[in-house]
Design brief:
This protein is an alpha/beta fold. It contains 11 helices and 12 strands. An 8-stranded parallel barrel has the order 3-4-5-6-7-8-11-12, surrounded by 9 helices.
């Protein structure tokens, strides 16, 4: 069998395929199936800032929190209580051999970031911090939002020794600069990118409709572009998430420079057996191309290494738009 081993956040992975944060990784049975199929690591569903805040409030019986949390789900609607989340980590650490990455999800600097320490103590091998905010205030500048993100990162980094990855939004004026600042703040990896919730409109009911759109291979173009640009320029590990549905999608993001290709929609759609198929497809591709290890081809088509680096830049956009080619 070909060697698909790699390293991500300093952790040894059996393969560069990681199950990203989703309801699937709430199930020990599904995780064991994915481990048997050759998954490299799993990221657990997120613990949310709002949930931790609500739990804290419930515990202290605060009557009034200014209504700030009312729009969020009720405590019992969250998948895990914080305590059950810790039990899940402990249980997985005794039953599976792959790295278990916990996920904290928040938007504002605050005491909830201290929960990072609790996750580390429960045995998480690394932490993925999902910083998800939808700025709607016209008076808030991008620079202020970036500073807030970095404040959250610093608060979390100060709590833990384990590796830290940040799941980022694609909406930065300069993703490369943000990645560099994250590295300076002690981040070990960037997960590109968060899928934003985008409401739809029901034109008959004249109402907003919500719901998560399933991924499609087309979605890989955005992480692929940024990973290609960042590879070799910023000293953090890069992981791709979004639209990795088929073997070719995983191969592409690794060729662009990703250390890990994260799977979500394809697992939800086709089941955990698809891990084995994707792994096998990747091994066959490596064999066809004469590669014996991931390192031999990782980043081969990053901007730094490819023969036509202008493909990542404006020049190619202008050429493509003027010639009308897709
Ligand atoms: C049902 C569902 C639940 C998810 N829950 C989380 C979560 O709790 N935390 C998180 O960081 N990402 C979460 N995600 C995002 C996925 O981890 C992934 O980044 C995103 O779906 C893009 O990958 P895909 O195109 O393969 O689905 C969720 C996605 C789905 C579909």
């Amino acid at each position: 069998m070909l060697n698909l081993e790699t390293r991500y956040l300093g952790l040894s992975l059996r393969s560069p395929l990681i199950a990203s944060s989703s309801p699937l990784t709430a199930s020990p049975a599904r995780i064991e199936e994915m481990e048997a199929g050759g998954i490299g690591a799993v990221v657990l569903p997120s613990l949310f800032e709002e949930q931790l805040l609500k739990e804290e409030i419930a515990e202290r019986s605060y009557k009034d929190y200014g209504g700030a949390l009312e729009a969020f789900p009720k405590l019992e609607e969250f998948r895990f209580s914080a305590g059950a989340y810790l039990d899940h980590i402990r249980m997985l650490k005794s039953s599976v051999g792959i790295p278990v990455i916990a996920s904290l999800n928040g938007a504002t600097p605050g005491w909830w970031t201290r929960y990072a320490k609790v996750l580390e103590e429960a045995g998480a091998d690394a932490l993925e911090l999902n910083i998800y905010s939808v700025p709607t205030d016209p008076d808030k500048a991008g620079a202020d939002l970036e500073m807030e993100t970095l404040d959250i990162v610093r608060l979390v980094r100060a709590q833990i020794q384990i590796p830290l990855a940040v799941k980022l939004s694609p909406f930065y004026t300069n993703v490369a600069h943000m990645a560099k600042r994250l590295h300076a703040a002690g981040v070990n990896g960037a997960v590109l990118f968060n899928r934003f919730h985008q409401p739809d409109i029901d034109v008959e009911r004249l109402a907003l409709r919500s719901g998560i759109l399933p991924g499609s291979s087309r979605d890989t173009r955005i992480p692929l572009t940024w990973i290609g640009i960042l590879y070799g320029r910023v000293a953090i590990d890069l992981a791709a998430t979004g639209g990795i549905m088929e073997t070719a999608d995983a191969i592409k993001v690794i060729l662009a420079g990703a250390r890990a290709a994260m799977l979500c929609s394809t697992l939800l759609e086709h089941g955990t057996a698809s891990v084995g198929q994707l792994r096998e497809g990747m091994a066959q591709w490596m064999e066809r191309h004469g590669y014996e290890s991931i390192e031999q081809w990782q980043g081969l088509l990053s901007q730094k290494n490819c023969a036509d680096p202008e493909n990542f830049e404006r020049a190619q956009y202008v050429a493509a738009v003027s010639s009308g080619s897709a």
